[in-house]
């Protein structure tokens, strides 16, 4: 498999991945001609980049006669996510604290005996820790997306 970072380093391939992501979120495929139309680049260029994305296993293709329909396979991007997320989350305070508040917003003691955080040595039950990790990843992705959109807005402005 080609180096995933090299594959996504190309701006045209990232644009194609963006188009494929939109369709992926709609649980749909897209044809080469639709990609050409959306990105306004030549069919040979799109086909060349789709070949690289296929080799990197970032897309799947379904052939129907002479037409090819592409779908995004985001799984290989998890390696990129695993590499990038520590950089995106740097500076975030990841310590979890639990406070019980009254309706007026005043701090009150928590329920005696029912506190899952009261056990020595275990901060979060395993299921809660896994959920917290997924939430953290989603937050990091959202932060990255916002920064990307702000950067694009600045470039156009």
Descriptive report:
With 157 residues, the protein is mostly helical. Helices cover 54% and strands 11% of the residues. It has six helices and five strands, in the order ααβααββαββα. It has a three-stranded antiparallel sheet. It has a two-stranded antiparallel ribbon with strand order 4-5. β4 and β5 form a beta hairpin. The radius of gyration is 22 Å and the shape is elongated. The two termini are 39 Å apart.
Write a concise synopsis of the structure shown:
With 157 residues, the chain is mainly alpha-helical. The protein has helices spanning 4-8, 11-25, 32-39, 43-55, 77-88, 126-156; strands spanning 30-31, 59-64, 67-72, 100-101, 107-108. It is 54% helix and 11% strand.
Query: What is the string of helix and strand elements?
Result: HHEHHEEHEEH
Helix content: 40-55%
Please count the beta strands (DSSP E, at least 2 residues each). 5
Distance between the termini: 39 Å
Shape: elongated
Strand coverage percent: 5-15%
- The total of helices stands at 6
**Structural class assignment:** mainly alpha
Low-confidence regions: none
Mean pLDDT: 81
The biggest beta sheet, please? 3 strands, antiparallel
Radius of gyration: 22 Å
């Amino acid at each position: 498999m080609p180096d995933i970072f090299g594959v996504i380093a190309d701006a045209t391939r990232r644009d194609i991945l963006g188009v494929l992501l939109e369709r992926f979120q709609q649980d749909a495929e897209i044809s080469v001609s639709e990609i050409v139309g959306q990105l306004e680049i030549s069919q040979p260029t799109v086909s060349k980049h789709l070949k690289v994305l296929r080799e990197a296993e970032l897309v799947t293709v379904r052939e129907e006669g002479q037409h090819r329909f592409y779908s995004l396979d985001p799984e290989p991007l998890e390696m990129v996510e695993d590499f990038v997320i520590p950089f995106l989350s740097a500076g975030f305070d990841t310590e979890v604290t639990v406070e019980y508040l009254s309706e007026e917003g005043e701090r009150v003691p928590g329920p005696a005996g029912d506190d899952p955080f009261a056990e020595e040595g275990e901060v979060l039950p395993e299921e809660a820790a896994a959920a917290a990790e997924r939430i953290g990843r989603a937050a990091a992705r959202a932060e990255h997306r916002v920064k990307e959109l702000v950067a694009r807005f600045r470039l156009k402005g």
